[in-house]
Every structure is written in structure tokens, then in C-alpha cells.
Write a structure and sequence with these properties.
The chain is mainly alpha-helical and 81 residues long. It folds into two domains: 43 residues, no CATH class; 32 residues, no CATH class. The chain has three helices and two strands. The chain has a two-stranded parallel sheet with strand order 1-2. Helix 1 links the parallel strand 1 and strand 2. It is globular. It starts with 5 loop residues before the first strand and ends with a helix.
Length: 81
């Protein structure tokens, strides 16, 4: 059996992003997906990525906004690779 550094369960946007980032950092990654890539919860992800109005923010929503603001440069790195 091949040794891996990280096993990612789920081939949706989050799982693929984590796997890709780990590979870019030199990790050996195993990705486990029950169906086909993007077949599960990825289609309903927009609500999790869209921050609520500022008056309802908490640390989680602040983190989500920060993640969205950083996403553009991260995806540019994916496109270059």
C-alpha cells in the first residue's frame, strides 16, 4: 500500500481545494469520493460562502469574508499551476 500524508474525504470544492493545496506543498494525498467529483454538497455551497450582513457577523462570518477576499489570488495560483 502506498503511504500518503493526507487523506481527503469528498471530491467537492472544499475537498478538492484542500487536496490541491496539500499537493502544492509537497504532500502525498489520497482523495476518496463516493460518486463523481462535485456530485454531493458542492452544488449547495453558495450559502456557506456568502457572508451575512455585517450587523449579524460573528467570528465565523468574519472568517468567511476574509476567505472570500483571499480567494481571488488563491484561484489565480490554481490557474497558473
Amino acid at each position: 500500500m502506498t503511504r500518503v500524508d493526507l487523506t481527503v474525504r469528498g471530491g467537492g470544492i472544499f475537498g478538492l481545494s484542500v487536496a490541491w493545496e496539500a499537493v502544492q506543498r509537497g504532500a502525498r494525498v489520497r482523495l476518496i469520493e463516493r460518486e463523481r467529483l462535485g456530485a454531493g454538497a458542492s452544488g449547495g455551497l453558495v450559502g456557506a460562502l456568502t457572508p451575512h450582513t455585517p450587523e449579524a457577523w460573528n467570528p465565523v462570518k468574519a472568517f468567511q469574508l476574509d476567505s472570500l477576499l483571499r480567494a481571488e489570488s488563491w484561484w489565480e495560483g490554481v490557474a497558473v499551476a
